[in-house]
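So, could you explain the following?
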Amino acid sequence: MTKIKILFLAPLLLLSIFSKSQTLSRGSLVIVGGGLEHTNKSVYNQLIALAGGIEKATFAVIPSASGVSVQSYMSFRNILISYGVKPENIHLISIAMVDDDSTVNVNESDWRDNGNDLQLAAIVRSCSAVWFSGGDQSRTMKTLLRADGSQTPVLEAVWDVYRSGGVIGGTSAGAAIMSEVMIGGGTSLSALSHGVVTGYTGDDFPESLGVWVTKGLGFFPHGLVDQHFNARARIGRLAMTLMNDKKRGTMGFGVDENTAVIYDGNQDKLYVAGVAGVTILNTSDARISYAQNLPNIENLRLSYLEEGDTCDFTNGIITPAKGKRSTKGKERYNDRYSGQEGILSANVATFRDLITIHLTDNKATDTIRNITFFNPDSGFQVSLYKTPESEGFCPEKPNRGDHYTVTDIRMDITSVHFSVIPVK
């Protein structure tokens, strides 16, 4: 089947770059939304191939975000070895802030200033790939940036690897650091009910305070990256973060668990690999207003990509994976959505389910509304609409699974109050 190409708001996409001065790299990024399982051959094989293949790939592993840095390194090392990478080509870059209790004679918290170690920087620079572990992304920022905001020698070496054509990867916290603007903590409900927090300097950001927004490392040039996206219901916090300062960018990329955004800096193209998907949120034409200090956001646009789908930033075109067909006029479902509560918090009905089987692949409805309570008499309503430009794709053969592509759905988020009136 010929690939179907969809115009993805190309003129608006030019506004998405968070760091206008950042030139495109010749290297690649593998941005994993967390929970990367050792059986995920699609992600691991592509990571290793981008690093030069099993014979040539050399990895610098930076466990700076982890609370168990040595364990994080050893786990990732063993997985790489199982895929054929040579053990001698996998290097621990000893940068951390927290002691790992698995090591008796080493206190890893003594590694917090090792970003300034020139020997470690030389090891990084000799590698074809750099991997950032999961954990707390603020630890990576504190160890790789100096107090004045300048780069440590190790971070400079990471950039040298990237610019020379190498691959930079990371999972969970290692994904959050990839964009110029970084989300440090917070939930969707706290973001919508308390707003954006900047300037926080402590440890362990209290998620009830709002969404903490700070500086990232800026490897990914096309927008804000969020992770654990579908599993932790983070569409609300991504929307609020983007709406807070549209001058710094209008595009957000929510990466699901066990799934990767693979970005080719040379071609300026995004690929999706793994078991779930990537939500692309566009706020270019969105509006925000406030009532009783609570936000109402209108006209957000979103698309959703899964394994094998691509997005070409040079022309704004999304291409579904081979073997997918349009759902228009061929919807497999004909069920009216019952309005289950709670899409902005962990719930059985995920956001992915709403935009795929309940909306684009469903002939019974063009609109879905879902309410999440944040106290007994108020909450937020998420409304999703098919537009004339909306398009959905799924595999032609059912035995290939429900791997969807969705483009140009409209979303509104509205603050609401409730009154319970008994039926008489």
Notes: The first strand starts at residue 6 and ends at 7.
